[in-house]
Write a structure and sequence with these properties.
The protein is an alpha+beta fold. Helix content is 51%, strand content 15%. It folds into three domains: 136 residues, 2-Layer Sandwich (Beta-Lactamase); 109 residues, 3-Layer(aba) Sandwich (Rossmann fold), CATH 3.40.50; 58 residues. The strands form two sheets. It has a five-stranded antiparallel sheet with strand order 2-1-5-4-3, with helices on both faces. A hairpin with a 2-residue loop joins strand 4 and strand 5. Helix 11 packs antiparallel against helix 12. It is globular and about 65 Å long. The protein starts with a strand and ends with a helix.
Length: 333
């Protein structure tokens, strides 16, 4: 648990600064491949991120938070359990701002010599300690609460509703309202099945928010599930076929305990999310072609329609790209 890596790169892809807290003597080839692909995807679509906006993705079981400012991209890689708000407020944003302020002359007249930025290591280490102190004091892990079992949740609200709350937490913003105790138990189950950001208030970084009553926040688009009457308000997605099929298939397996079911669900879910970087790089590669090649290449990665639907929604929320729009353009002649 904690910050594992911090990087600052230019919008042209140059590594200006990096700090590795994994204690490895050499870079893992898998990590390097993931990092190169991820950075390429961010650079290609930096405009869709929006300067100052924080985006979060889960890749290879780790949380990647990234933001842009003044043609620089800051990336923090952390454990899934770490709190996005704390990383954002006490690590990523302060460090990127400090870097720009500390090296504004070097950045303006950069000669290609990167050792000039080595002195930033001390600031990074100091800020990491600030983050760790804040995390120890403020971070509350929802999964420490007693969660509903998957079987119990299905009996309580039915399998379709479980699939839908998972979909809305992953690809939209989900608010659970009603009985506080049951909301927290259902919320803990959701967080154990998929990596999401639970916030103490409804804001732009929320994946899941728990409230005793319907929140009044006209500036945020969200969907609400009432655990008392099993009803939806502003339901964004009518169905969640991918999640429902996965749950049904897991329940058919004999001899599995509830934790086994949850871990297997999470494993398959993360394997699908890992396709995002490959997806985005193909969109960039074929974005100006109108021969339908993009659709064929993407289908070679994921063929199953329910998975494709989920992945397109996930990319739109977390990257800000409309895959369907790119596919439509690729077919036009």
């Amino acid at each position: 648990m904690g910050i594992e890596n911090f990087l600052i790169i230019s919008d042209t892809g140059d590594f200006l600064f990096s700090r590795d807290y994994n204690g490895k003597n050499q870079t893992n080839h898998t990590d390097l491949s993931l990092l190169s692909g991820f950075i390429s995807a961010i650079r290609n679509f930096a405009e869709s991120i929006g300067e100052g906006q924080i985006r979060t993705m889960v890749i290879a079981n780790r949380k990647w938070l990234y933001t842009t400012k003044h043609d620089l991209i800051g990336i923090a890689i952390a454990a899934q359990e770490d709190n996005d708000d704390l990383i954002k407020m006490h690590f990523l944003i302060p460090l990127l701002n400090q870097f720009i302020e500390e090296y504004k002359e070097e950045l303006f007249n950069h000669s290609g010599e990167y050792t000039v930025f080595d002195s930033f290591q001390e600031m990074t280490d100091t800020q990491r300690e600030v983050y760790r102190a804040q995390a120890a004091e403020q971070s509350v892990d929802l999964t420490t609460r007693q969660a509903l079992t998957l079987q119990g949740a299905i009996e309580l609200v039915n399998i379709d509703s479980i699939a839908l709350v998972l979909r809305h937490a992953a690809n939209h913003k989900l608010v659970l309202v009603g009985d506080d105790f049951m909301c927290k138990k259902l919320g803990a189950l959701i967080q154990s099945m998929i990596p999401i950001h639970v916030t103490s208030e409804l804001n732009g970084y929320t994946d899941l928010y728990i409230s005793s009553k319907y929140p009044n926040n006209p500036d945020i688009e969200f969907s609400t599930f009432n655990v008392d009457n099993r009803g939806w308000t502003h339901q964004k997605y009518p169905s969640a076929i991918y999640e429902k099929i996965m749950i049904q298939n897991l329940l058919k397996k004999k001899g599995l305990g509830d934790m086994d079911l949850i871990l297997l669900f999470r494993k398959e879910y993360l394997e699908l999310i890992d396709k995002v970087t490959e997806y985005i790089n193909l969109i960039w590669k074929y974005k100006n072609q109108t021969n339908g090649r993009l659709g064929r290449e993407l289908q070679a990665i994921v063929k199953d329609k329910p998975k494709i639907e989920f992945l397109h929604q996930y990319i739109k929320k977390n990257i800000g790209l409309d895959v369907e729009d790119f596919l439509d353009k690729s077919k036009k002649k």
